[in-house]
Amino acid sequence: MRQWLEFLAGIDRERIAQLLKDCEVSMWKSCRARPSDTGAARMVRNYAAIAMPWGLLCEFADVPVEQGDFWRI
Q1: How many C-alpha atoms does 57 have within 13 Å on its Cβ side?
Q2: DSSP assignment, residue 16?
Q3: pTM of the predicted model as reported, rounded to 2 decimal places
Q4: Residues 72, 66: Cα–Cα separation, whole Å
Q5: What is the SS3 assignment for 33?
Q6: What share of the chain is helix, strand, coil (3-state, %, to 5)?
Q7: Rounded-to-integer distance, Cα 4 and Cα 38, Å
Q8: Is the pLDDT of residue 13 over 80?
Q9: Calpha distance 28→71 (Å, rounded)
Q10: Strand, helix or coil for residue 11
Q11: What average pLDDT does the segment 54-69 reach?
């Protein structure tokens, strides 16, 4: 657990923001709703907020992000 927390603490704020943005872009690519749909926008942001730490966990554990078919990009 300590190593995971140290890994997270070592990531700068700009990288986290960019990873979240990249996840949102990826989610919108498979979304059928329009970006003007506020409900869809909220869901995309929520899913991106789950996918982004999954990507970081995979990076930390050195496993492919596609592992377990959790995140389809």
Answers
A1: 11
A2: H
A3: 0.81
A4: 7
A5: coil
A6: 70, 0, 30
A7: 34
A8: yes
A9: 14
A10: coil
A11: 90
